[in-house]
Amino acid sequence: MTATMTDTPPPAAPKADTATRSGRSLGQILMIVAGALLLVAAVRVISGSDQLTSEGQVSAALSLAVPIGLAGLAGLWSERSGVVNIGLEGMMILGTFGAGWIGWQSSPWLGLLCGVGFGVLGGLLHAVATVTFGVDHIVSGVAINLLALGTTQYLAKLFFVDGKAADEGGNPKQSPPVDSLPNFDVPGLSSGLHSIENHHWFLISDIAGILGGLVTNLSVVTILAVVLFVGSWWLLWRTSFGLRLRSCGENPIAAESLGVNVYKYKYMAVAVSGGLAGLGGAFLALVTSHTYLEGQTGGRGYIGLAAMIFGNWRPGGLAMGAGLFGYSDALQLRNGGETVHALLLLLFVLLLAMGGWKLYKKAHWQGGISLMVGAGVLVWYLVTDEVPSDFVGATPYVVTLLVLSLSAQRLRMPKADGMRYRKGQGK
């Protein structure tokens, strides 16, 4: 993603997208996952904070990660076509209002569809401004965020303060309550994993708690989000449609010369982006709070963009980033300073490992700074029993900054991301 828009055409010779692959084999990925599990399990035992890998913690993290992940997936669709979408926050706001407005009047299922539809409208507006009229992508996105906020505030005052809506609990800042969408557990598996978790065995109980959180109290929208992630990966990287769409984000001039209707693919991608962001907003209104609330997105559209960048514009990495942000958010919401305090020990180990790696790579300044910061974190952990409440609320945002700073060196965005394109530009 880029904040600088120019009329300079993208490079004439696009490189294959395979250059963005990490090069890690399945065995290496499994070793990384196993190492992470061992580290978290060790921190749980040393700190005595059993909530780190509990079923409730993981279930809450999954619920908090879904809207972030959907916002990030929305950004991925848009930016793979070459359109920067800063307006994700506004499209999520439109989704929350549409879901709350229609949901209380009819059914949560229609509310879900309306939330998606409102998001699509926001996406199409962004596409008209950026693709058709060539408006700077950042300016258009910011305008959509402001427009969505103002529009929903006006409509809430128009529809929720009088008559039936007011009688059922509506007011200028929220809609009346909406019926719940169904939740379910995986029969047999949930209870068995919960029993193993309660033994607090090293690693075994940690794995049981994590798996238990992934199969307990699942919303149908969560299952839909998983399907959308897998489907997006297959569609964008395994089909000719996806190849054409990604070519619009890498080199639209070359794509046009091969017969690709660049405008059409950009419009489709940004419309899908708006729909996914609207679905994330609908999740907040229908699953998290069962009502539309003013300001309930809480910046998740921006955090979704951060997760997309962390994931290097790929669904797998994006899902990991969303899970990380959801996990840190769940820690500070469920358990407060004591559990967040245990993260200091985990942060110390990570900084120590990164510092050693940087020194091995002859990056002495970076390695030294990492070790110094790690030493400070260790001292903080040893001399305190919990993190002050003023810092606890900032945990997800601090994690966002740390993750982006650590992953910045390996990123590769689409080459034509954010650049203005005009039909026939290469002639």
Structure description:
The chain is an all-alpha fold and 427 residues long. 69% of the residues lie in helices and 1% in strands. It is built from 18 helices and 2 strands. The chain has a two-stranded antiparallel ribbon with strand order 1-2. Helix 1 packs across helix 15 and helix 14 (315-334) packs antiparallel against helix 18. The chain is globular. It starts with 25 loop residues before the first helix and ends in a 20-residue tail after the last helix. Mean pLDDT is 85; it is low at 1-8 and 10-23.
Q: Count of helical segments?
A: 18
Write the element-wise H/E pattern from the N-terminal end onward. Answer: HHHHHHEHHEHHHHHHHHHH
Topology, number of strands: 2
Strand order of the largest sheet: 1-2
Mass-distribution shape: globular
Distance between the termini: 27 Å
**Major pleated sheet:** 2 strands, antiparallel
Name the poorly predicted regions: 1-8, 10-23
Broad structural category: mainly alpha
What is the share of helical residues? 55-70%
- Overall radius of gyration: 23 Å
Strand residue content: under 5%
Give the overall pLDDT as a whole number. 85
